[in-house]
Design brief:
Distance between the termini of chain A: 21 Å
Largest interface: A-B, 46 and 46 residues
Helix content of chain A: 25-40%
Order of helices and strands of chain A: EEEHEEEHEHEEEHHHHEHHEH
Strand content of chain A: 15-25%
Number of helices of chain A: 10
Strand order of the largest sheet of chain A: 3-2-1-4-7
Oligomer: homodimer
Shape of chain A: globular
């Protein structure tokens, strides 16, 4: 039996899974990234964590056919490098693939984390029955991944599917990327918190007033009848509807998948998003494109990275 | 030698070309569409025009390997039908492919006009050296076509690349599609005229005041030093920059091609668009994606449709 390891590198945590060819998670391992100690330290930790997850899963490293590493940054697939990772101190032109490959003596494939999440959902998650889809990962920012005809859309410099930086409001909210009106300034978990703080500062009444709160708190307050929080949640659904509509009119895919902490709000939030998309998108595009929560959730990056490694192991080609 | 015929069906004119396998235009034919007389009449005229262009080109219809028909509406490629053409009276579920095929006894391929224009530029126009690109056709509306890895991006219901209906300004200008803030309400030739009329109605001073004018007149006035017209042209470049930036962040292609009457304004307008894209898009995406005018211009639809027919004739697959 062949095994694959998926690595999901985050700014805070390093999460790994030992994964079967069908995308089943056979064993897990998590540890702090210790990003502050710099890229070489993190690379050594990544390789060590692969050994550790093999121990947890009672599998020989030699039986791991390939390793997939998902990173929170744009990548250079061919070179296996990370040109720049804004959330990882000192990460500039880091040769992730070769470093881990040499350390472990196993083939390594490098992927962007949101692309990996898309591939995971496509291979064995919410989108396993379709051939074209996109994912929006709603966290600190908004990440994106696109599958067309069974393949990741990478673009000519691996910069496709940076969907958090679609402009939905020309001249709108300033974004960390230097631009204005990017989707992630409206629909990320952080943006929900930021917009709620603004609403409170503008004199809005809410049970969240005077408290420190998260995106989940805003959704919980809305569910508990807090009118201001509910307005914020409704607007978030509308902004997502705008972004999804533009993507439907660009890609006309078979499924849209959302993932992130907002999943806790279940179908009710998704139904709000669907209502806006039905209102805004061409019927020919919206009726064929169900909008779903991911089924892999926080494991999407791990499983997607492992299955991208499986594809490379099987075909010699990128996923 | 094999020949192909491309048909570019417009609401007013029916334009055809006899095209070589290399995309060379060997003969032309144009006639009024006579759309008011209904779909059956138009279909008969399309077939007759194919015969006519063969006569002009001194080629036997039997030597035409395949015919490509580009229509100004979404299509159903597999069925060869037009579900609904808003600009052609009575066009609802019209079997274009089979009607012309039976009339002529030659294979026919149906395409959307902007998709055909993209394919023409990709095969033998501005984008002939690249494998991925998109086109924006700036006319009454804004049409779009996307090529990824050498193939047209069609989407699951042939509704991909409706790029005029990307939302660049949530809650913005109302669009004929029922939505608000669509790119075509800002950057089409018609939108330039409409925005100029609004600026004049709001008291703006321009030499165009009190006159009936076209998009070309606005660009000409700007070039001749009319400050208001120049502001309108500058804003048009900015709006196009917004749409192109979102497309670069979604597709990360190798080239962006613009086409339509604004081509008359030459490199100076394009340079304004490029300036906005350089400012707004990720450097990794913008530096690898030149923005060019089409080189086929008004012939793009004809040549692209003919070459889509060539691809189908050669491979049995859609372009």
């Amino acid at each position: 039996m062949k095994y694959y390891v998926g690595i999901d590198l985050g700014g805070t945590n390093l999460k790994l899974g030992l994964v079967s060819v069908e995308g089943k998670m056979l064993a897990r391992h998590a540890s702090p990234t210790e990003a502050a100690r710099g890229p070489q330290h993190v690379l050594a930790r990544m390789a060590q964590a692969v050994r550790d997850v093999c121990v947890v899963g009672h599998v020989d490293l030699a039986d791991v056919a390939a390793v997939g590493a998902a990173v929170p940054a744009p990548i250079n697939w061919k070179a296996g490098t990370v040109p720049l990772a804004p959330n990882l101190p000192g990460w500039r032109n880091i040769g992730v693939r070769d470093a881990i490959q040499e350390d472990l003596g196993r083939p390594v494939v490098l992927e962007n984390d949101a692309n990996a999440a898309a591939y995971g959902e496509f291979r064995c998650g919410a989108a396993r029955t379709v051939r074209s889809m996109f994912i929006l990962t709603l966290g600190t920012g908004v990440g994106g991944g696109i599958i067309i005809d069974g393949h990741m859309l990478r673009g000519v410099t691996d910069t496709a599917a940076e969907l958090g930086h679609m402009i939905i409001q020309h001249g709108g909210r300033p974004c960390g990327c230097g631009n204005r009106g990017c989707l992630e300034q409206y629909a990320s978990a952080s943006a929900v918190v930021g917009r709620m703080k603004e609403a409170l500062a503008a004199g809005g009444a809410s049970r969240l007033e005077g408290r420190d709160f998260s995106c989940k708190d805003v959704f919980d307050a809305a569910a508990a009848g807090d009118a201001l929080a509910d307005r914020l949640v409704e607007e978030t659904a509308e902004y997502l509807g705008v972004g999804i509509t533009s993507l439907l009119h660009t890609l006309n895919p078979e499924m849209a998948v959302l993932t992130g902490g907002m999943m806790a709000s279940g179908e009710s939030f998704l139904e709000r998003v669907r209502t806006y998309v039905r209102k805004m998108a061409f019927e020919r595009a919206s009726t064929v494109c169900p909008i779903r929560w991911s089924t892999l959730g926080g494991d999407g990056g791990i499983i997607g990275a492992a299955l991208a490694a499986e594809t490379f192991d099987r075909t010699g080609q990128p996923a």
